[in-house]
Amino acid sequence: MTLQYHIPVMPKESIGGLNIFPGNDVLDATFGGGGHSSLILDGLGEGRLFAFDQDEDAAVNTLEDKRLFFIRHNFRYIKNFLRFYNVFEVDSIFADLGVSSHDFDIPERGFSFRYDAGLDMRMNQNAKTDAASIINNYSEEQLKFVFRMYGEVKNAGRLVSEISKKRKVQKIKTTNQLKEIATVCAPRASQNKYLAQVFQALRIEVNDEMEALKDFLLASLELLKPGGRLVVITYHSLEDRICKNFMKAGNFEGKIEKDFYGNVITPFKLINRKVIVPGEKELEKNPRSRSAKLRIAEKY
Fold first, then answer.
1. Which pLDDT score, from 0 to 100, does residue 235 have?
2. N or C: more exposed end of the chain, with fewer CB within 10 A?
3. Domain span including residue 258
4. How many domains are there within the chain?
5. 57-86 pLDDT per residue, tens
6. Is 0.90 topped by the overall pTM?
7. Which residues contact 105 (CB under 8 A, 6 or more apart)?
8. Confidence band, pLDDT 50/70/90 cuts, at residue 3
C-alpha cells in the first residue's frame, strides 16, 4: 500500500480520539490511501474495521487483512451497507473530509487549477454530473448560489457574469478555461486563494458534499454505541460548522434545546471543546493540513 496517496492528517490525535480497544468494531468513512485505517488496525486486535470510499482509485490501497472490510460507496450510506454485514452498531467512527492528495495530483481528475484537464471533479467516477455540466448548464442564479455558499466567493455575481458570456460563445470544458475566466475576477493580492475557492465550490456541488455529510452524521449517531466516539477532520468553515453544531446540539443549526429542568438536551459529550489543529512540525511536513480542524464527541 502506498500511503503517500494521502498523508494522514493529525494521526496521533485522531486515532487517540477514537478511544479504540482490542475487539472493537470501527468505521473509517473515508478510507482514501488507508493511512488512518492502517493505524486503526494497529490497535484493533481481533476487532473489525469497515472502511468506506466511493473513489475507485482508493480500492487499490486496500490492505491484505482479514479484519478489514472495504466498501466502495459514499459514506452517506454507511447504515445501509453495514446491515449487509449484520452490523447495527459500532464502537467508533472516523472521517477525514479532505480531498486526497492523490486526487489533487492526478491532472485528469480535474480537481486542481494547477493542471489543464477536463472539468470533472467527480469523486465517484460513475456519477453522471461532472463540473463541466454544472458550469455550462446551471442558471446564473444557481451558479451564484454555489460560489457564494460553498466557496464564499465575494464577487460571485461578476464571476458568473463572465462565465455566462464565455459559455455563450463556446462550452467551458477544461480547468484552464475556468481558470482563465476566474483569474479575470480574482484580486491581484490573493489570486491563488480565489481560484481555490472557485474550484472548491464547484467540487462540493459536483459531489453533493454538504448533504452527504449531513446524512453521514445522522447515520453515525444511530450506529454509535453509547460511549462510542465520533472523530471528524474538516477543512473549510461550512463543513466544520455543520459538524460543530451537530456534536454540540444534535442538529445542524446548533439550536440548543433544554428539558424542563434547564438541562441541555444533546446526544453527545464534547471531548474537545476547543478545536484541535495541526502543530508546527506537521504543517512543515504536510502543508495541505494547514486548514484541518479535528473535533471529537462521545455518544451519551
1. 95
2. C
3. 3-101+209-299
4. 2
5. 888 888 899 999 999 999 999 999 999 999
6. yes
7. 112
8. very low
Q: How far apart are the C-alpha atoms of 69 and 62, rounded to whole Å?
A: 9
Greatest Cα pair distance in the chain: 65
**What average pLDDT score do residues 289-294 get?**
96
Kindly list the distances between the CA atom of residue 234 and the CA atoms of 41, 170, 247, 292, in Å, as whole numbers in the listed order: 22, 37, 13, 6
Q: Is the dihedral of CA 177, 234, 212, 59 positive or negative?
A: positive
Segments in 43-127 forming alpha helices (H): 78-84, 101-105
The CATH number covering residue 43 comes to 3.40.50.150
- What is the rounded distance in angstroms from the CA atom of residue 59 to the CA atom of residue 33? 9
| Residue of 230, 189, 191, 273 lying closest to 75 (CA atoms) | 230
Q: Are residues 88 and 216 in the same domain?
A: yes
Question: Distance between CA atoms of 13 and 106, rounded to whole angstroms?
Answer: 29
Q: b/e for 121-148, b at 16 or more Cβ within 10 A?
A: bbbeeeeeebbbebbeebeeeebbbbbb
What pLDDT, on a 0 to 100 scale, did the predictor assign at position 100? 64
Q: How high is the pLDDT of residue 2?
A: 39
Per the CB < 8 A criterion, the answer to whether 212 and 74 are in contact is: yes
Q: 290: burial class by Cβ within 10 Å (0-12, 13-18, 19+)?
A: exposed
Residue 13 placed within a domain: yes
**Judging by beta carbons within 10 Å of its beta carbon (0-12, 13-18, 19+), is residue 43 exposed, middle or buried?**
middle
How far is the C-alpha of 292 from the C-alpha of 278, rounded, in Å? 7
